[in-house]
Amino acid sequence: MIFVCNRPGRLAAAIHTMGLRFAIGVVWLDAELKIVDMKLAKPWKFAHVPKAPAMYYLEANPAILDLVQIGDQLRIDEVIA
Known about the structure:
This protein has 81 residues and is mainly β. It has strands at residues 2-9, 24-29, 35-41, 54-60.
């Protein structure tokens, strides 16, 4: 899933994993969709905060962390089904 923050920032893009029973891969992106941080977010943690301000973040299967790296530029294409 991709999430859009109201404004770029570290705290604006912070997430929690309270209630999750499994780890997720989180990728934080700036306004230009450049990866600014990524992390394996383990369950039951109050806050996961990116190291740099982010405008978007992706929550995905932890395997995403093996496919991208900080500094990569992503592209999001709209798919109409």
